[in-house]
Amino acid sequence: MVSSGFHPELRRGARFLPRGGIGPRTLPALRALAGLQRLHTPRDVEVLPLPSGASVRIFRPPVRTCDPAPALLWIHGGGYVLGPAAQDDRLCRKFSAQLGATIASVDYRLAPEHPYPAGLEDCWAALIRLAELPGVDPERIAIGGASAGGGLAAALAQLAADRGDVTPTLQLLVYPMLDDRSAALPANRAYRLWNPRNNRFGWSSYLQDADPQAAVPARRADLSALAPAWIGVGTLDLFYDEDLAYAQRLRQAGVPCEIEVVAGAFHGFDRLLPRAAISQSFFAKQCQSLRGSFTGRD
Questions:
Q1: Is 7 a catalytic residue?
Q2: Does residue 16 have a pLDDT over 70?
Q3: Does 262 reside within a domain?
Q4: Domain count within the chain
């Protein structure tokens, strides 16, 4: 059951945040607004094309060594229907600086124009491209994402286990959107930014005629042989229950899974209030888990 109290550091900000807003009527305007982030490509970002017409943004660590460095494939959120990869440029720079790693951020194709498996295949193509980049150690590549990007990262970990070309060291799942069945949950006044109504629109746009058993990460029956996982989510997030259920299933399947539960945190809290101590701690724990995966420590 979702708790009712916001974390003290988030309470004030939560008052001014919307409880949702993505739907067929608002999507064009939200995409136009988000598209402004694509108008300028910073000098430190290298944009590489993918075969589908999608692309991947590359961030190199500020201090480079002669040895191949670890890497992280990052997948942005947006309910499978919204957002350019550029929205996470600042985050990718932080990851790169903190980890001394190359970060590849996927500008994947969006639903409903490009339903499953288009976005997932773009992520796979980006993963293969990342593994081939000069200066990247293909044995030390993690995959991660937030919200719908976390859902795609979980699906990509499953795809990597099936195809076997690249073996990720970690799947970093930040409040991931994993299960279409949570769209049936009742509304709750504590939800911010993403609610069941938004969830129905996002999943229906992405799945369309696809078989949910194949397309939805949480519906996969066999979770064994997947990469170790880190899952972080707040207790006031719509995805709280499904994320904890997925973590439990991973552990039952023998997959190491670290769980970080943030009491009183809503969806996307760390992006909207990045200066809060709780947000900084949340990011630090992600970096700690990534470092451990790169060095072979649990």
A1: no
A2: no
A3: yes
A4: 1
Q: Is 40 an annotated catalytic residue?
A: no
Say yes or no to pLDDT of 288 above 70: yes
Residue of 105, 147, 182, 289 with catalytic role: 147
Whether residue 297 lies inside any domain: the answer is: no
Query: Pick the catalytic residue: 88, 122, 237, 270?
Result: 237
In a domain, 86, yes or no: yes
pLDDT tens, position by position, 45-66: 999 999 999 999 999 998 776 6
pLDDT at 12: 77
**Domain contains 1:** no
137 classed as catalytic: no
Domain of 134, in residue numbers:
8-292
Q: Could you write out the three-class secondary structure of the chain?
A: CCCCCCCHHHHHHHCCCCCCCCCCCCHHHHHHHHHHHHCCCCCCCEEEECCCCCEEEEECCCCCCCCCEEEEEEECCCCCCCCCHHHHHHHHHHHHHHHCCEEEEEECCCCCCCCCCHHHHHHHHHHHHHHCCCCEEEEEEEEEEECHHHHHHHHHHHHHHHHCCCCCCCEEEECCCCCHHHHHCCCCCCCCCCCHHHHHHHHHHHHCCCCHHHHCHHHCCCCCCCCCEEEEEECCCCCHHHHHHHHHHHHHCCCCEEEEEECCCCCCHHHHCCCCHHHHHHHHHHHHHHHHHHHCCC
Catalytic residue among 267, 270, 279, 289: 267
CATH number at residue 281: 3.40.50.1820
